[in-house]
Amino acid sequence: MLGFSKGRYTARVARDAADVSAAQRLRHFAFLGGQGDDADVDPFDEICTHILVEETNTNELVCCFRLLLLNGGDQIQQSYSAQFYELCALRDFEGPIVEMGRFCIHPNHQDPDILRVAWGAMTAYVDENKVEMLIGCSSFDGTDADEYLDSFAMLRDQYIAPNHWLPKVKAPDVFRFATRLNQTPNLRRARLRMPPLLRTYLIMGGWVSDHAVVDRDLNTLHVFTGLEISAIPAARKRLLRAIAA
Predict the structure, then answer these.
(1) pLDDT tier at 21 (50, 70, 90 boundaries)?
(2) What is the pTM of this model?
(3) How many separate domains does the chain show?
(4) Strand, helix or coil at 130?
(5) Domain that residue 119 falls in
(6) Are strands 174-175 and 97-105 parallel, antiparallel or unpaired?
(7) Residue percentage of the chain with pLDDT more than 90
C-alpha cells in the first residue's frame, strides 16, 4: 500500500474517517477560503481512495486528493467528471482508468516539493494498479474566464484532446474557448496563469476538453483532463518513479 517520505513531506493513504475529514476541511479552505460550511463533502468521498501529503515533522496536512479506480471505459459514467462532461468517447478505452479529484494544496504552503511528492504518490498508485489512463477536472481559481484568456488560447492551440477521446458539452454553464477565442496567446502569461496541476499534466503529454465548465459551487473553472500513461516520456517516468521509490 502506498506510503513514503521524501524530504520534508510524507504521502500516505487515509486510514480512517478522521483522515478523510481532515482532507475535506483542507479542500473547503483551499477552494472556498473558509466560507460557508467548514468541510467540502460529496458522495464520491465514500468510494474513493484519499491521499494525504503531510509535513513530516509536524504532521500538518499540506495537500490532498482522491482517486477513483475504474476497470475500463465502460465504467466512465461512474466518474465524478461524468456529471459535467459527456464522456461517451471514452467508453471504448479498454484499460484501467483512475480519476484524480479534489486536488488541492494548502494556500499557506506553496513549496514545489509538495506537488512533486503528490505526483510521486500518484505514480506509485498507477503502477500498483496497472492504470493506463489518468483523468480528472483541472481547476482555475474563480469563475471569470477573462483572467485566463492567454491560458485558454494556449490550450486551444496545443492541447485539445484527440477527436477519438474528445469530451462533449454536458454542463449548462460552459466557456467554449476552442471556438470563442481568436487571439494569439502570450505564452509567458499563459504559463504563469496555468494551474500547477494542469501544467504538470500537459508536460507529461496530457490533453484537455475544448471547453471549460463554470463551477460556481466550488468557485472554479475546470477543464476535463486526460493523460494516457503510455504517452508519458520515458525520462519523466523515471523521475516520477524515483520520487515514489
Answers:
(1) very high
(2) 0.93
(3) 1
(4) coil
(5) 66-244
(6) unpaired
(7) 85
